[in-house]
Amino acid sequence: MIIPNRRDPVPGSDANPAAPDTENFLRRTASASVLAPLAVAIALPGGWIFAAVCAIAAVVVLWEWTALVAGVAQWRMLAPGVAALLIAAALLQHWTPVAAGVAIVVGAVAAAAGAAGLPHRDGRKISPLWIAAGVIYASVIVISLIPLRSDPEMGAAALLFVFATVWATDIFAYLVGRALRGPLLWPQLSPKKTWAGAIGGLAGGIAAGSSVAYASAGTPPLIAVFLAVILSIAAQAGDLFESWVKRRFGAKDASRLIPGHGGVMDRVDGLLVAALAAVLIGTLRYGTAASARGLLIW
User: Has residue 18 got a pLDDT over 50?
Assistant: First the structure.
């Protein structure tokens, strides 16, 4: 059973700012060199395989969230019915977002009911509201990435735009933050994130995202930059939110599933918030059936 590693020392933290991070950087690079091409290879064809991968990722994120909240994986909160409802929501996106939303709400209620009365590892009661929130959080993967990719004309381009913006934001924030250090961005949430890293990540996200949007969809450069700014900020906000949740429950990583990266939740924290922002922009402009076009075509 994999559970979050608690109270582990943080390389390069404010407690030990000079701690070497080379080994962690190499692990992150090796993992990313496999995961990024795999994600693109699955996303570009789209279809049922992509929907299934999103559903599996949502279930894993929910499992990691419940392990964080409970101190140890409580399988009653992940009853087959809850996982099945998340999978059903992913599949229902191909027909109607309303039905998918109903499945997610039912899943949240079922997970909360399953958590009622269960003990935390330290003896306290587990909050059903935190468990229900985990279902909503995990479901963002389903209700954002799948609708974007389902657009037959611009779905692939929209996902490439989101991926490029989020990944460049993450990479540049990490590299610039390690190189320049400086004042911490929000020490109450993260002992590692700096203002230099946040600004470097924003610059990298703008450069990569706007270039991909212009090259793949012909999005006007100023609009592409504006959209990349929104997605990059959303990605960093998602990263900070997950940092807050982990700090709230005394964990360094969501799990140890991915070497150098922690868990799936640690890898998609920024992506799911940025993708949600992207699908909201596209849906408001062109509707649910053409959210990718609404995002990129101006």
Answer: no
At 36-72, the pLDDT tens digits run: 899 999 999 988 899 889 988 998 898 888 888 877 6
pLDDT value at residue 78 = 61
For the ranges 64-73, 74-83, 102-111, 135-144, the one whose mean pLDDT is highest = 135-144
Distance CA(42)–CA(36), nearest Å, equals: 10
At residue 36, the pLDDT reads 87
Contact 73, 3 (CB under 8 A): yes
Instruction: Kindly list the domain boundaries of the chain, sorted by start residue.
Output: 22-296
> Residue 264 to residues 70, 91, 270: CA-CA distances in angstroms?
18, 21, 11
State the Cα–Cα distance between residues 60 and 106, nearest whole angstrom. 18
Q: With b meaning 16 or more CB within 10 Å and e meaning fewer, what string describes 115-128?
A: beeeeeeeeeebeb
Cα gap 75→256, rounded to integer Å: 18
pTM value?
Answer: 0.86
Nearest Cα residue to 207 out of 160, 164, 236 = 164
- Please report which residue ranges of the chain form alpha helices under DSSP H: 22-43, 47-70, 80-92, 97-115, 128-150, 155-180, 195-217, 221-248, 264-286, 291-296
